[in-house]
Amino acid sequence: MLVAAVVCADRKNYLLDKCFKALVEEPAINCIYLNVESRSFINYDYALEVLHHYARNGRFWDFDICAITSSWHTPPQYDQDQARLSRIIIARNMAIEYAIFRQATHLLFVDSDVVIHPGGVQKLLELNKPISGGVVPGRGEHRHANYIFGGHGTENGCLQVRHGTAGYMLIRNDVFTRLRFRQGPHPTVENTWLSEDPAYAADAAALGLADSWWIHPKATADHLDNPDKPLTTAEAVNDYHVI
Questions:
Q1: Pairing state of beta strands 31-36 and 60-65?
Q2: pLDDT, position 204
Q3: pLDDT value at position 70?
Q4: Beta strands of 157-212 (E only): which ranges?
Q5: What sections of the chain are H helices per DSSP?
Q6: H-helix or E-strand containing 6?
Q7: Which among 131, 194, 141, 139 has a CA at the least distance from the CA of 166?
Q8: Helix (H), strand (E) counts: the chain
């Protein structure tokens, strides 16, 4: 059982249809789980329509909401403001609980602005690594970057790295049943603060669950920018930097 989880923040709801279309067409996926940030989500009806279509094809789907609706809540100053991470972490951990409920063997995270290319999920499954992922390019002003950090070596053409991106990430159940997402201090390096992707990899290594994150170079994807509000240089310099 492979569960594909899509975590959709309100600021990334603009191309969810393309993300879903790629997932629906991937035969290795048995179930789609969608978690959206709030009921103000503009593609709410469309998301349910696509998921209902998925169910008619004989596969499971489920839907959750991680709501931030308080009147005092202040929107982040920048598109990349890391104040958003707390909601994303909650949503990712809700996806883990769902995968456990479904007795999934694997949990695939795909960000709502990422469109996976055909066959990539199967390539990750064949790797049979505790944590693996695909190649996701940056978007907007980051379009020339790949989210791959800290190369350790190669094996059969695949990259052994410190961490990739949870935007296209496959986790085996011997890892996700024992580890949740967080942000905060590095488990072994002092004075180092991590966002959720590198923290998950670092915690997995510290607990002996996965010594590396493996990247398959042929598991590729498109990372779509917001056509109405592309990521700018000014916003990109405010990205949260991790080791």
A1: parallel
A2: 98
A3: 43
A4: 158-163, 168-172, 184-185, 193-194
A5: 16-24, 44-56, 85-101, 120-127, 173-176, 196-206, 233-236
A6: strand 2-8
A7: 131
A8: 7, 12
Q: What is the pLDDT of residue 119?
A: 95
Residue 86 to residue 84: CA distance in whole angstroms = 6
Flag residues of the chain having pLDDT under 70. Answer: 9-15, 38-48, 50-51, 53-59, 67-84, 227-243
Q: Largest Cα–Cα distance of the chain, in whole Å?
A: 53
β-pair partners for 171: 107, 131
Nearest 5°: the CA angle 66, 30, 57 is 100
Contact 193, 184 (CB under 8 A): yes
Whole-prediction pTM? 0.85
**Cα→Cα distances 117→17, 31, 32, 35, 178, Å:** 15, 18, 17, 22, 29
For 2-232, CATH number out of 3.90.550.10, 3.40.640.10, 1.20.200.10, 1.10.760.10 equals: 3.90.550.10
**CA-based radius of gyration for the chain:** 17
- Structural domain boundaries in the chain: 2-232
Helix (H) or strand (E) holding 216: strand 213-223
The DSSP bridge partners found for residue 6 are: 34
What per-residue confidence (pLDDT) applies to 82? 52
* pLDDT given for residue 124 in this prediction: 98
**Dihedrals phi, psi of 53, to nearest 5 degrees:** -60, -40
